[in-house]
Design goal:
transmembrane; rod-shaped; DUF4190 domain-containing protein; transmembrane helix; mainly alpha; 123 residues; 0% strand; membrane
């Protein structure tokens, strides 16, 4: 070491023997391109939308009455069916956010389950 600097004792790659160069090139081909290669394609938008629409579908029948007594309980259907479609598409294997889409699916099914007693109680 001279003046606090480290000396690199490794030889440059172009001076390596042929068998070592071939092995290094094979390792470089086998390695993934980077952290983006390990992540699944797609985004978590559909799972987020499914969960948000599902929560709105659960809350829609319980909104304060604004003279919508006859149709208020059916607001869950208008929101839950598209929410189910978003959740099913969000459960695709190539997408991120699959847990959120699964929770959105359950919440949307719960919104449809709430609809049955409300529809029978308030025809």
């Amino acid at each position: 070491m001279t003046n606090g600097q480290q000396i690199d004792h490794r030889a440059p790659q172009h001076l390596w023997p042929d068998y070592a160069q071939a092995r290094a090139q094979q390792r470089a081909r086998d390695l993934p391109a980077g952290p983006a290669a390990a992540q699944p394609a797609g985004s978590a938008v559909l799972g987020t939308l499914a969960l948000t629409v599902g929560l709105a579908a659960v809350l829609a029948p319980f909104l304060p009455p604004v003279d919508l007594t006859a149709v208020r309980q059916y607001g869950a259907v208008v929101l839950a069916i598209p929410g189910l479609a978003l959740a099913v598409v969000g459960l695709d294997r190539r997408r991120r956010g699959r847990p959120m889409a699964a929770i959105g699916l359950v919440v949307n099914l719960f919104a449809l389950a709430i609809l049955a007693p409300l529809a029978l109680a308030f025809p």
